[in-house]
Every structure is written in structure tokens, then in C-alpha cells.
Fold this protein.
Amino acid sequence: MGGEARVDPPIKIMIDDKKLKSGPTTYEHWYDLGYTLIPCDGSRAISKGWQSPDFTLTKEEWKSKYLDRSLGLRLDSLVDFDIDNPKVKEFAKLWLGKCDAVFGRDHNPSSHYIWKNVLSPQKFELPSDLTKYVEYAVHGNCLCEIRSSKSKYTIVPGSLHSKDQEYVRWEKYEGFNEYVGDLNKVLRKIALATALSLLYAVKGQRDEYCTAIAGVLINHTDWGDAEINEFIYQIAIISNDDEADNRKNKGTSTRNSKRQFGMPKLAEILECKKQSVVHIFGWIGAEDKALAEVKEIADESIGQIIQYGQNRYKLKVTGKLENKMFEKTIIVDGQTLMNQKAFYDAVISQAQVWIPKMTPKQFEEIMKMKFETRVQSKDWEDDADNNLVFKKYFTSYISRVKAYTNKKELAIYKSPYFNQQKNYLEFNLDHFEDYLHSQKVNLERVDLVLKIQDILQAKKNRGKYLGKSCPAWKINNPELPIEDLVIEGEYIEETGGLIDDFEKDRT
């Protein structure tokens, strides 16, 4: 940024947090307040090791090296609530209460609230299948973020914003105070309310939408009716629902009603995956309790999936015998992992372990999560790869019957043909299939063709020999040992079973 971001000359005074009414705006201000400051190029930290507890820069280093850099305040004992979507601010005004340190910039005022506290950092982003609801938002799917701890920093007043070339400025500063109440809960509540407002249903679906929200909060949180009532009512108001007054008691009425929609209904209205609904309600700690309980039980019985070859998986299962716990490893294929009955049968037959019952839907979700987090075995065997096995059969075929440099052998006797000048191999599908049958390898014709295309990277070639049709499958740049070639003019004598059968066809 060069000199454009240069701050005011340092003010050499001792600063009291509560007396600096205008707010800190220089490196000396922040140092005198006792905070760790990181030099940044725009929003990017340029000092190595800034996350280390021992990281420090002297005032002299700042003055000599970083006077024109942005000020990155490390959030060791602070929480910065960073607001990206403007709708967040409407709920922040409702529920955040007093905050003595607020800053922003012209294009995004009141976008940072800071308190003395330490929370787990989290970015609140809508899942990708909900992007259509925020496609015109400047920050896209990102609504807001909790920044806190030594692993996070924020660009503070006294800096030039890297995108819009606007100075970051204080809008309120009376020192950093501690939040009265549960800051973590209220920030997450604001994030969820923002999401549900941005996703608010169209007329004709709003009552079911709000009923479904109430159902989720009733069944998946410890919120009382009064909190649910107010939460949904405020969402309706901020979403410009002209029937918002009808949502005032949605929590109470839903709890007393037999009509309790939930996450599936919300997914239906929003035309998204149920998991996306689970995701945003997870911000406040809500989850599919039934699935969570089953998952906990399943995790006690079913270990991590380890892949050790193509379509071969092993996993440990835990059982009990004579009140003693034991582990056994089972080996299954992908089809078994996907089929609940087949998986239960495999566990019983291989390990004599009883897996707690679950619904097919629960089984699918749990096994999907386990499969997506599978790891490759350190003992991965290429020999277990079906692709490699097929390649070995083809290599064996060429080794047995040889590849001829005279195309006559392919046209008349169906033997493989190798073009030395252009470096390609042609072979007859029927001839190769006969060889596989001799090795007791029986594949459906369509499966054989697919393997030839996918594994051998062969293409059908409708060629000719002496004006007559000579169809074959062609492989470019094959790796052929010299001993597998019969060069024109050479004589080769082969004996034994399969070769003799092939030779009979040539006479």
C-alpha cells in the first residue's frame, strides 16, 4: 500500500483504556494498552510466527519498518464479532446489548464489536445449496464471524481497508468491556436468526416455515416457549412478514399442537438438503438428537473404515462376550457397506458382534459419514486393485500368445499386432476373451469392453488389411518387453494347452 496507509505520528503518552475516548489508532496507542500488534499488508499478516505466545515487536521496529502497514490486533483475550451481511446488524441491535468498542468503515459501518472475552472462533456461512438466497450479497454465503484467541487478528482503526481504500474508524470507544450474559449464545443466536430471515419463506408457506422452526427448537434445544416465541416473532418482523403478529406465540402453540414440523419440512420449503438445515441449526448447538444418539451407540460398535484396495475395506467392530469387551476386524466390499442387512450379516458371520439396530436412514447417514472420513491403509496392496489384476491378465495374454509385427497375423489368425514404426498395439477382442475363459475369468461382454476402455485405455479401430475389414482394439504406446514380440521373419515355437488351441484355429 506504500505511503497511503501511513498513520499519524506516534503520541508519546501513557494511555488509560477508559480515558482514550477517541480510541487507539496508532501502534503506540495499542502498545501502551498492552496488546499484541501484527504488521499487515492490507489484511495479510507479514510477520512470521505471529501466533506464537512469545511474538513481539518493539515500538522502534514498528517505527523503522512498519509505519506504513495496517494494524493487526491479535485477539489474545478479546472477541471480535465481525459482521459481513447487513441483516446481521438488525438482530445485533436487538440482542447484543451494550458494547463499548465498535468500529467499521464507510461501506460497512458498525461491523466490528469487541469485548474482553475468549470464545471458540467460528465463521457462519450458509451451505452451498442455499447460495441462491444470498447471491447478491457482497460477502456471499458468509454472514458473520466470531474471531478470538491467539490464532486470530483483526484490522483495527488507524488502518486503510485493502479493498475499498477506506480508513477503518471508531464509531464508539469507551474501552473494552466484558459482556454481561452468555456472549457465545447470543452471537450464535444472531447468526441463526440472520440465516432464517434471509431464507424466509414466501407467502403461502410462512406459517409452515415458522412452525417448522419452532418444532426444531422445541425438539432439539432446551429453549423455553417464551424464548422461541420472541425469536420467531423478531425474525418475522425483520423479514417484513405482514402477518408477523400471527407468529408471536408460535413456540407455545406449536408445543401444544400435534402439528410439529421440523428439519425435513424446512428442507422441503427451502428446496435444500436436510443436512444444510442441520448445519445452520448446529450453530446454536441443535442437532438431530435421534441420529446423534444412534451415532454414539454405533461409534461404540463400528470403528473407522480403512480402505486397503479397490472396493475392499476393513474396519474394527467391538462386541461383548462374558461381560468382556473385544475387538475384531472384518473385511467387506463397498456393496456390503451400502447394504444394511448385508453389513449386519458380515459383522455377525466374521466377528460374532451384535450391532445395535437403527433405521435404514440412520444407517445410511452414519455409514456415509464414516465412508467419507475413511483412510487408506498403510498396508495398501496394489495386488488388491482389480484394475491392476485386469492389467496383469492382459500382460499375461500378450506374453503367452506374443505380438507380431506382421499385421497378417491379426487379420488371419487374430493374434496381437504391434506396429513398430508408430508404436501401437492392436488385438482381437474375441481372441483375448478366449484367453480369459481359459484362465477361468468370465466377464459379461459389456463389462469386458468397459475394462478394456477404462483400464487399458484402448479404442476400437475399424481398420483394414489388404482391402478387407480388420477390426481390432488399439492401444497407443504400450510397454512391451522385447521377448513378447515376434518380429517379421523370426520363427517361434510354442507348446502347451492354450497355445495349441489357438494354433489349431490358424490351420
